[in-house]
Structures are given as structure tokens and as C-alpha cells.
């Protein structure tokens, strides 16, 4: 488990302190994929570099499996860092070394025998699908292949944690997908904890279990990806969600012509229905509305997936006898749909 407690980082620029991080409190569970999303300059790189103490926090603790890294001696820290692999946006490979030697590098630093190095490097190259490229140099590989080398190198000493610093930002969308799939696969097979930073919501949606949104050096929103994604509270989170969802958080076009009306026993209202997980595939909503004789208009809708979880979201205009509409909403809620009356 990783605990960042009351972390703060100030840089000194022209004798003046610039606060890059403040009041950071995050707990990351063993084996989860945790994403941090934020705009440029929000403090993401500083945050991830504080986890392995490439940047030393000005204040606060970085506790990994009960050990506060900020209290360790240089030698102890060096040892602790063997449990923390890292990959980078621009791969940081050694251009004058072969792919084999790039992956072997951390093993040689850890003084492994030649036989151990050979066997481990071959195993890692196989894992990332680059066995045939062992003798090539980084310049002979594509961006995606270079990142695969980065991943193999980061995993060489079998770390417990993998830090990903904008690992897919330099890659095209297809290559991004394949690298994210590889990371998710490694996480599933080995149980390694992955922490990644990104400015792309698609990356979070694709592989993360939980997400924290960072703005101006502070975590402004955090939680399970599905929850943050479907109910973004902060404006900045809503902007990130809009990158991947065509769902309008402001009024949709059709809604502009709508005003909730009630005449006598009749009522008209707008509801937002959220389907998450298996219920996405069940015809609950239409069944209930039909049974209760509630008429509906679909104003807006989206369907997609978060990591392995399918989800859908619809905005509907409901009209009918008030008691029927109320009962339909209550029944849908009781059957596992998230129904919110929004207008
Ligand atoms: N070495 C440094 N010295 C001084 N200021 C720094 C240093 N590194 C970062 N900063 C400042 O700290 C703040 C956070 O920067 P950081 O690089 O962590 O943000 P980021 O979210 O990773 O941005 P980007 O996505 O553009 O890399 C910024 O105001 C930046 O100018």
C-alpha cells in the first residue's frame, strides 16, 4: 500500500518559492491502477516523481508498505527504489545500447549473474512482444516499441510499483491502446500496483480503477473511475469527462425547449438514467416505463465502457400521471439503475 500524507512541494525560482503541490493525501491499494489527471502545470510530474523521491517533498511522507521513504538514508533509498519501476513519456532509452542491453541495465546495476541477466531479459522481451528485436538499437524501433522496451526495463527487478509518467502521450491512439492493454495485462498477471499520470481522460477510462484530479497542485476530486466519470463534481473534472463522452453536462439542445410542467394529475420531467455494469444489457428501463404507462422521449444518450465495466447514460423526458411517473422512477432505482430527476 502507498500512502502520500500531507505532501507539499515548493520549488525555489529566482529566490521565490513556487508551490507545485500542497495538501496531497492519497492512499493507493496494492494491485490497483491509480490515475492522476490534470492540465499542464497542475503538478502531475512533480507528484509522481515525489513517489520515488526523484523529487524530495518539502513536507509530508511517502509511505510504501509501511516504510516512509523520506526518512531513509541514501543507500536505503537506493534499495527501496528497486521496488519502484518507472516509465517515461520520451522513453529515456540508452541510444547507444541494444534493446537487450537497455533491458539488462537495471539487472547489471543490481549485480545479477550473466545467466540471470540473460534469462530475465529474454523473459521480459517475450512479455512485451519484442523477442525478435533484441539486437536492434532504439532508433530502429517505433514509438510504441520503444515504450515496450521502457516497460521491460522498468519491470526488470520485479518491482511492486510501476510509475508511468505520461507514458502514452507521445504515441498515436492505436499504439496508446496497445500499450495500455499491455499495462493492464501485466497488472492482472503480476498484481503490480500501477500509478499513472496523464492529461487524457481516455487513458483513465481505459485502464484505471481509481482516479484523482489535480488542479493547481491540489487534489480536487478523487474516487472510483466510474463514480467520478458519471458524476463529475468539479468543473475541471467535467471538462476532462467531456474529452471522451459526448454527453453534455450543460443543457442539451433538446432540453432548451423544455420546461417541466405539471397540470392536475399529469406531470412532465427530465431524468438522467445511468446504467453501470451488467444492468447496461438488461431492458429494465423500457419494461418499467411501459408497465407504468409512462411516455418517454430520449433527449440525449451515450454508451461506452470503463476499464472492463460497461456503462450507459440517457436523458429522458418522462410524461404521464404523476403517481405512475413516481412509481416508475422508484422501480427503476430499486432494480439497480441510477435515476436522477434533473428537471
Ligand atoms: N524543477 C522545477 N523548478 C521550478 N519549478 C518547477 C520545476 N518543476 C516544475 N515546476 C513548476 O511546478 C509546477 C508543476 O509542474 P509539473 O511539471 O509538476 O506539472 P505537470 O502537471 O506535470 O505539467 P506538464 O503536464 O506540463 O508536465 C509548475 O508551475 C512548474 O512550472
TrEMBL record:
Keyword presence, Cell cycle: no
SUPFAM superfamilies for this protein: ACT-like, P-loop containing nucleoside triphosphate hydrolases
Keywords for the protein's UniProt record, in alphabetical order: Amino-acid transport, ATP-binding, Cell membrane, Membrane, Nucleotide-binding, Translocase, Transport
Stored Pfam families: ABC_tran (PF00005), NIL (PF09383)
Domain ABC transporter: start-end pairs: 2-241
GO molecular function list: ATP binding
Domain of life of the organism encoding this protein: Bacteria
The keyword Nucleotide-binding is annotated on this UniProt entry: yes
Family matches, as InterPro entries: AAA+_ATPase, ABC_transporter-like_ATP-bd, ABC_transporter-like_CS, ACT-like_dom_sf, MetN_ABC, MetN_ABC_transporter-like, NIL_domain, P-loop_NTPase
Protein name: Methionine ABC transporter ATP-binding protein
Species assigned in the record: Tumebacillus lipolyticus
